[in-house]
Specification:
Elements (H helix, E strand, L loop, with lengths): L3 E7 L6 E5 L16 E2 L13 H12 L6 E13 L2 E10 L6 H6 L3 E3 L9 H15 L1
Parallel strand pairs: 1-5
Antiparallel strand pairs: 1-2, 2-6, 3-4, 4-5
Protein name: NUDIX hydrolase
């Protein structure tokens, strides 16, 4: 599986946090995780190959048509997701703009959602969002 990226925007004045829901309906860029995917708990076997987060950021910016520097990695957040024998890493990135890039989301077929609007997502994505939200709030 390819590395995934959860992207969010946190309003600087109100701290309102919204996640980018992608065209496939979920938040783990850029395609759905397998149905059997689960988040590995810390202490599991480390991956043999680790992806550098900058590559994931640049790829997301390119796919969304954003200028370089539009996304910033959330330090200290990295989750491992497994599905059968496959493993992948999930990173968390923040949009650096003052307001969420609504036009960019619309143009790509996505939208920004609050955490409460994520109820219909698969369990693995809900677990990743919970972990993301805990990290964002500190």
């Amino acid at each position: 599986m390819t590395p995934r990226l959860i992207m969010y925007h946190k309003q600087s004045t109100s701290a309102r946090t919204r996640f980018l829901r992608l065209p496939y309906g979920g938040v783990c860029g850029f395609e759905a995780l397998p149905d059997e995917a689960v988040v590995e708990e810390s202490g599991a076997i480390p991956p043999k190959v680790v992806t550098h987060p900058a590559l994931v950021l640049r790829d997301a910016e390119a796919r969304l048509g954003l200028p370089s520097g539009s996304l910033e990695m959330e330090p200290g957040f990295r989750c491992e997701v497994t599905a059968g024998d496959e493993r992948t890493q999930v990173f968390l990135a923040r949009f650096t703009s003052i307001d969420p890039p609504f036009e960019t989301a619309d143009a790509s077929g996505g939208s920004f959602i609050d955490l409460t609007q994520a109820r219909g997502l698969p369990p693995v994505e809900l677990d990743l969002l919970r972990r993301s939200y805990e990290r964002i709030l500190g």
